[in-house]
Amino acid sequence: MMTAFFTSGPVVDWPGAAKSDTLRYARYFHGMLDRGIHLAPSQFEAAFVSTAHTEKEIDATLDAAREALRAEAP
After folding, report:
1. Per-run averaged pLDDT (10 residues), the chain, 74 residues
2. Is the distance from CB of 21 to CB of 9 less than 8 angstroms?
3. At what angle do helices 22-34 and 55-72 cross, to 10 degrees?
């Protein structure tokens, strides 16, 4: 399980998670979706990796994440 939070500090509880930038996550979510990667639409939901995911899918996800983050950077 994992979740991406866009915040400057660590997220270890709800107050830390609540400080995250939900608009930035929304841009990231749509950037990933545009690249064929389907994530949870809310950063307050968990993502899962399963044994059905091969290195090919994981590498494609990492490549898409790099592209999406570069595209939304100021």
Report:
1. 90 94 94 95 89 92 95 75
2. no
3. 130
